[in-house]
Amino acid sequence: NINHLKKIYNFLNTFEGRFSMLAFFTIIGFAVIIGNLYKIQIIEGKSWRAEGEEKYSSKNYIKAKRGKISTNDGQVLAYDNEDFLVILDPSLIDEDNIDTVLNMLKRYIEPLEIEKYRNEYLKRKKDKRQYLKIEHRISYSTKIAIEEQIDNDKKEAKKKRKEKYKRKFSGVIFETAFTRNYVQNEAFQETLGFVNSENSGVYGIEKYYNKQLAGEMGIIKGLRIPKAFLNIVNIKNKEDSKPVKDGNNLVLTIDSIMQYSLDDELQKAFNQYNADSAMGILLEVETGKILAMSSYPKAEDKANIKNRTITDFFEPGSIFKPVTVSMGLQTKVINENTRIVSTGSIRVKDRIIRDHDSSTIGNLSLADTIARSGNVAMVKISQMIGQNVFHNYLADIGLGAKTGIDTYSETTKGLLKLKELTEVKKANISFGQGISMTQLQMIMALNTVVNNGKLMKPYLVDRIEDSNGNIVEQNKPIVIKKVFSDEVSKLNRRYMEAVVTRGTGRNAYIPGYRVGGKTGTAQKSGVGGYLKGKYFSSFFAFFPVDKPKYALLITINEPKGIYYGAAVALPSVRNVLEKLIDYKRIGPNGKVKTDEFSKKSEVVKEEKKKDLTKIKQDFDKNIMPDLTGISLREFLSIYPQGKFSQYEVKGSGEVVGQFPEKGTKLDKQSKIQIVLE
Fold it and tell me: pLDDT for 268-279, tens place per residue?
């Protein structure tokens, strides 16, 4: 009421009333402030802190160096070369100083376009965007020279602090840029694969092992103090930062000498027979290690690189026959005493299947049937085996599924369904027609036949090592399945030895060595049937027969003129095996020889090791060593990849000339040339 309001008014006009009023509003004000502080710090504190850190924090990424890839005998095939990119921070460079900075950089980076980067700087300065990257890469020595200019600028600023000297070259920083380099790459291109512009693997081993090779990028988190405090960046929360971890190195199962040997033979056959393509695989029988793998033609553009041994499908022809015999022996529809009669042809439903010549006509043993490569005998064996059992064995030897080899881009065709395995189809498959597979699938199937029935998983990488040479992961042989018995395998090895001693593969005989093998000539299929004059010509070989150590398969696609596997593919197989025997000093029993000659070779080898140590020490000291007399393989085993600009190799054999001369001081720009004869 009115009287009550008058009393309040009179009270507020007193000293006590005014004081109470002031106290009341003061308390209300503090309550509001405390409430806001609670809201900002407790309720919304996390988001405010995040926004503040984002505005003033600095996060620097350190790129990891990609791991190198080398052969089992020490040849480096792929490595990262270290270059640098110059980066400008517009927040640290004043507009009246940008020309000074760019002109300084122009002295070291000749192609640098000052006008272009000035305009880009102004845009970023206006938009308050950080970091302007100069697109031209510079070497380590150029980076050092620029850094010296920046250091001198800092010293000058410190010396003239009282005169308010303004630093001219602040805001110039560097980023490491790695370039992937491949050494003598043509022979290895389809196996190694390649990386993209971001240095990430996109094909082959580079792709399959990308995670192990790539390493982990380092992160340094800091807090940027405002410009009044000179834009200093202090390390913040060390636990939030992460050190860079360079990629691991891969050591392949491939031997460089055997890779070059196989590659050379494929190139010769490819050119000699004007073939569409040629491919070959050399492996270690008991382990599944790939010792050499190559194909032709080579790709001129890396985007067209193709590993035909794991992507191209072909009909194997007669090299498949040992598989059919193994099925028959394992199911006991035939035995080692079985003899098969052939009149030269056989009717299956509405088809007539014929032998390739009259040598297979008659009553033949299994050894003679394989040695002379009879088609009719294989059809008869397949007819004794049930459809379901025959189909299961096709799957057991790995057809219709990838082998699991550790490289990217392996392909496979699905195995035909059981209901599709007609009598005619089964008859054709028994001698290697009417079925398609990759060369790797075929050699692993044949390897199963000779390796006591064990289907192995093939692999290309022996081990993964860290940058200090410590083994991170060791790949080991994996038996996928035991398909045939030891006895079945033993008998088949004997039959395939007969191919070399008295059959279609006689030219593969190497005096003193027990070599087994199988020829194969398959007519290519096309729309509406088989194509006239188009063949796959193959030869498979292994040795020693009693306990196989090595197996090799070479296939020539569409040779022109002569097309039989024994004439086209066999000579290349023999040449590679002879090179293998000579290079590894392998005795007839498959073991390395330990005679006096071998011991002397080891002494010479040991002496060379001592010389290589001295050469490596000179390289480490940036001194050009005396390279005279060493081989390319020895040079590559001790050359410090990426330390100097580049090297160039001419010729083959041993080093007879070099540039620079021995004793010359080397630096990052040094280009090394060696001549071999």
Answer: 999 999 999 999
Q: Compute the distance between CA of residue 109 and CA of residue 111 in angstroms, rounded to an integer.
A: 6
The amino acid that residue 345 corresponds to is S
Q: Which residue has the tokens 């000293």?
A: 15
Provide DSSP, 598-660: HHHHHHHHHHHHHHHHHHHHHHHTTB----TT-BHHHHHHHS-TTTSSEEEEEESSBEEEEES
Distance of CA 172 to the CA centre of its chain: 36
Q: Is 314 left (phi over 0), alpha (psi -120 to 50) or beta?
A: beta
* pTM for the whole structure: 0.78
Whole-number Å distance between alpha carbons of 98 and 319: 72
The residue to which tokens 């290895």 are assigned: 188
Cα distances from 21 to residues 1, 25, 627, 632, in angstroms, run: 21, 6, 98, 97
Q: What is the pLDDT of residue 640?
A: 79
- Assign 3-class secondary structure to 261-293: HHHHHHHHHHHHCCCCEEEEEEEECCCCEEEEE
How far is 487 from 453, CA to CA, in rounded Å?
Answer: 9
Q: What is the DSSP string of 120-183?
A: HHHHHHHHT---EEEEEEE-HHHHHHHHHHHHHHHHHHHHTGGGTPPPSSTTEEEEEEEEEEES
Q: Are 662 and 626 in contact (CB under 8 A)?
A: yes
Pseudo-torsion of CA 320, 323, 325, 331, nearest 10°?
Answer: -150
HSE toward the beta carbon, residue 84, CA cutoff 13 A: 19
Q: How far apart are CA 195 and CA 425, in angstroms?
A: 43
**DSSP reduced 3-state for 294:** strand
Q: Residue 162 corresponds to which amino acid?
A: K
The alpha carbon of residue 524 and the mean position of all alpha carbons in its chain are separated, in whole angstroms, by 32
Residues 115 and 129: their CA atoms lie apart, in Å, by 19
DSSP for 444-504? HHHHHHHTTTEEEPPBSEEEEE-TTS-EEEE----EEEE-S-HHHHHHHHHHHHHHHHHST
Summary count for the chain: helices (H), strands (E) = 22, 28
DSSP code, position 41: I
Structure tokens at 6: 């008058």
Are 265 and 575 in contact, with CB atoms under 8 Å apart?
Answer: yes
> Which neighbouring-strand residues pair with 466?
none
Query: What is the distance between the alpha carbons of residues 574 and 584, in angstroms, rounded to a whole number?
Result: 15
- Measured in Å, how far apart are the chain's first and last C-alpha atoms? 121
- What are 573-591's pLDDT values in tens digits? 999 999 999 988 898 877 7
Structure tokens at 21: 């009023």
User: What residues pair up with 194 in beta bridges, in sequence order?
Assistant: 203
A 10 A CB-CB count for 364 gives 21
> Which residues, including other chains, have CB under 8 Å from residue 477's CB and lie 6 or more apart?
286, 287, 288, 289, 456, 457
Give the pLDDT mean for 400-404: 96
| 574 DSSP assignment | H
Closest Cα partner for 410 from 481, 459, 474, 473?
A: 459
The residues with which 555 forms a beta bridge, in sequence order, are 279, 538
- Which of 53-57, 69-73, 482-486, 631-635 is the least confident region? 53-57
Q: Which of 407, 459, 397, 456 is nearest to 429 (CA)?
A: 397
Sort strands 655-659 and 646-651 into parallel, antiparallel or unpaired. Answer: unpaired
What would the mean pLDDT of 384-413 be, rounded to a whole number?
Answer: 96
> Which are the contacts of 170, defined by CB distance < 8 A and separation ≥ 6?
92, 93, 150, 153, 231
